[in-house]
Design goal:
128 residues; three-stranded parallel sheet
Length: 128
């Protein structure tokens, strides 16, 4: 699961849930990842407009619906994303996030070896 850096995601209850669901890993984005807002907005539109009230009888049907939505969305809204952030600022922020997560991890190692790690996502998601 990709999560923002909201403090609730790091609370004991979230960690307990994660420990009880070993198939999942929390991938926490760096602080101030404004690019994630655009991704979240896109997935919210996809959910509202195509998935929420849909009936999909197979994974193939679901994939077809998602791909159809992306094609229609791109045809109707051909606005390229214009990157305005300085890459060095992004890298510095990511490094600060790594340091914070490492210090959190070091602080919890003594409590339990099974404590799930929060893994930062260092790359941007690309929608095609």
């Amino acid at each position: 699961m990709i999560l923002d850096n909201y403090a609730a995601h790091k609370k004991d209850k979230a960690r307990e849930w994660l420990a009880g669901h070993p198939r999942f890993t929390f991938h926490v984005t760096s602080t101030s990842c404004s690019w994630l807002n655009a991704v979240e907005g896109f997935f919210a539109k996809l959910t509202r407009r195509r998935l929420k009230h849909g009936a999909f009888h197979s994974v193939v049907d679901l994939q077809a619906a998602i791909n159809r939505f992306i094609r229609e969305y791109n045809a109707a809204n051909p606005k390229p994303f214009v990157w305005k952030a300085d890459p060095q600022d992004i890298i510095a922020e990511r490094n600060r996030g790594f340091q914070t997560l490492e210090s959190i991890d070091r602080g919890q190692r003594h409590t339990s070896r099974s404590t799930p790690k929060f893994v930062p996502v260092p790359t941007l998601l690309a929608l095609q």
